[in-house]
TrEMBL record:
Native organism: Actinomadura gamaensis
Pfam families, per database record: Phage_holin_4_2 (PF04020)
InterPro entries found in the cross-reference section: Phage_holin_4_2 (IPR007165)
Entry keyword Metal-binding: no
Keyword Transferase recorded: no
Membrane-crossing residue ranges in chain numbering: 7-28, 34-52, 64-87, 99-120
Protein name: Phage holin family protein
Record keywords: Membrane, Transmembrane, Transmembrane helix
Length: 129
């Protein structure tokens, strides 16, 4: 159940990023197709983050320390660009136009995702107590 909530939160965060950031587009004939596209992209984004982010953090540990973690913003932008590329390969109508839309979009996705994780109960492992 928790993974469904995480995918839904990421899909909403991507939708907000699309609304706020010029250069992030989701196209579709109907609202239902756009919503399914966002869910598909959220799954891709989750897999990309789950697989690549720990590897990047491990290999780039010195850069994270040197930049006090600010390199993480660049990494997140590049992961969002990779997600856009992979979405295109899966014929999902989601596109990020370049680095700067990806940079700001990654910030929006991170902030909105964090806010939704705080607001939605039952998403933490500690809730079983």
């Amino acid at each position: 159940m928790r993974i469904i909530i995480k995918v839904a939160i990421t899909a909403v965060a991507l939708w907000v990023a699309e609304l706020l950031i010029h250069g992030i587009t989701v196209t579709g004939d109907t609202a239902g197709k756009r919503a399914l596209t966002l869910v598909g992209v959220a799954v891709i984004f989750g897999v990309v983050n789950a697989v690549l982010k720990p590897i990047i953090k491990t290999l780039g540990c010195a850069f994270y320390i040197l930049t006090l973690g600010l390199i993480g913003l660049v990494v997140n932008a590049l992961l969002l660009l990779l997600t856009s590329y992979l979405a295109g390969k899966f014929s999902l109508p989601f596109h990020v136009d370049g680095f700067w839309p990806a940079f700001w979009g990654a910030i929006v996705v991170g902030v909105v995702g964090w806010i939704l994780h705080v607001l939605i109960p039952g998403d933490d492992k500690d809730d079983d107590d």
